[in-house]
Design goal:
The protein is an alpha+beta fold and 246 residues long. The protein has 3 domains: 79 residues, no CATH class; 72 residues, RNA polymerase II/Efflux pump adaptor protein, barrel-sandwich hybrid domain (OB fold (Dihydrolipoamide Acetyltransferase, E2P), Beta Barrel); 88 residues. 33% of the residues lie in helices and 19% in strands. The protein contains 2 helices and 12 strands; from the N terminus they run βββββααβββββββ. The radius of gyration is 35 Å and the shape is elongated.
Amino acid sequence: MKLQPIRTPASAPAGAGAVVAEAGVVEPSSELIEIGAQIGGVIDRMYVEVGQRVAAGAPLFSVDSREARASVVEAEARLRRIRQGVAAAHTSLGVSRRQDALYRSAGDPRAVSRQEVIASGGTVEEAAARVAVAQAEANEAAAQLAAARVRLARHTVRAPRAATVLQVSTRAGEYANAGNQGGDSAGPLITMGVTDPLHVRIDTDENEIDRVALTRPAMVTPRGAANKRISVTFVRAEPLVVPSGS
């Protein structure tokens, strides 16, 4: 009994002259975009599924953020309290300035002594220093709040660009390590790519490199359909030479 081959090998088009025929793989035009968690933790929500097209910045999944949300609430409360202190310091400075102006406007030294005028000026300077310290504390608290909000935002992983979800390797309830490691798997949690258009990556044998004309038109034959040929145009070359395996 004669066995039929399962895969149709690459072949040159009929009537073609000197050609270079290589095996290739279809891939997104953006190449594969591998997504991991920025913060380690339990995934509490998945926003996408395989085949879904997402816009840039759209949420993909989120990691438990209860502690991060509590930090934001704490930082907001601290900033409000410090800003109230800044307002009180400004009020005290205003009173001190008005009192000092009143002392200095008195022309009769018998009404206000020189010592009282000097003390009043010192009170103004002290109040101004308290305002500066309070404002610096407010600036620090605002920076801490901004940092807390950034940490909270990192719990939600978003699409880096508009693309199609090609693979989802995790689900809600699983633990995600920071980086591309997801649970016990060694791959990314989500794989995305731009599928319109698609590209065909051809790995050329090192012995054929000098025969390849990069800018010339080419034909692609799907595996298993030798009679079907698709015209393709050159996009780019990656000049990375890897020795052939034995």
